[in-house]
Amino acid sequence: MILLALESSADSSSVAIWQNSKLLAYQIIEAKFGHAERIITQVHKALKQAKLDLDEIDFFVGGRVLVHLRAYEPVLLL
Prior knowledge:
With 78 residues, this protein is of the alpha+beta class. It is built from 2 helices and 4 strands.
């Protein structure tokens, strides 16, 4: 099982990719604003670091804040 997790509710945003209980890749950017614009780049970098394609991800996980839904929209269009 491969999981891609997104988090951007604080002054930083992050992407992590896990396979079972092993961390394969992560990206963190410290920025108060612009998370939605940067999260896609972080996803691409993490996928490259993990040597995976987006279609290999089994589950996507994000925070509870509704603002996060805007960040997922471009990811789903890839």
